[in-house]
Write a structure and sequence with these properties.
The chain has 140 residues and is α+β, with helices and mostly antiparallel strands. It has a domain of 63 residues. It is built from 2 helices and 7 strands.
Amino acid sequence: MLSLLGVVALTALLSLLVSWLRDKHSYRIGRSHLVISFGGVAVRRIPLADIKTISARRLRSGEYAEHWENTMHTSRRYLLLRLRKGWRKYVLITPSQRYVFREQLQAAMAQLSLPIPGADDAEPIEAEGSEAPGAKSPGE
């Protein structure tokens, strides 16, 4: 029977191992795929043509995703990819600079003449000169 000290030591060792392994994911944009690698070995390839939207948001209720997080502190690093096909429609990654990575991903898709995915987290852009309802013009 393990003593209490042994259980605590084993728990601490396992939590250190999990946090160390979590930092080993990396993301790379290839010619036609987004490559997710673990320790330098590709474990997931997502064709760029399969990406429908790229959002800098968390999952909503009822949405399920593949999680490929590479940090313990994910709060401002979420990048959610919505896929056109597949069993899981969403892939959640956490690149260190999510907006820069999103721009690089969109540029890679543009080079392949693929439709550049929109972001479903963006605010709608109003046409120039249009006013919000109830807004007063300067001078009224």
